[in-house]
Amino acid sequence: MAEGSFFIKNNKDICFSIQQREHLLLFEAFKIVFNTKTKGENSGGFSKFIVTSIKDIQKVVEFFSFSGLQPLLGYKLIQYNKWINEIRKSPRYCKLKLP
Fold it and tell me: C-alpha dihedral over 27, 28, 32, 34, to 10 degrees?
């Protein structure tokens, strides 16, 4: 289990990140699931995977909204819905296929 976050940077980049205690194979699996070449960051015993590109954000949206594999509940669902609304307002990301 890892902590995932949906957020917007100050420069208006839409971001998704996953952080967990260091587990290199798990983070290689994230790269496969999201079909990205993004490299994870490792520091202080933790690994972090973060994506901001339009292509990668679309894959995150598809994974959580259209795959039926990972239902979000509670606060994480609220955070995700707010994130989707910010994507709709973003000139850079607004053309993504959204729920």
Answer: 30
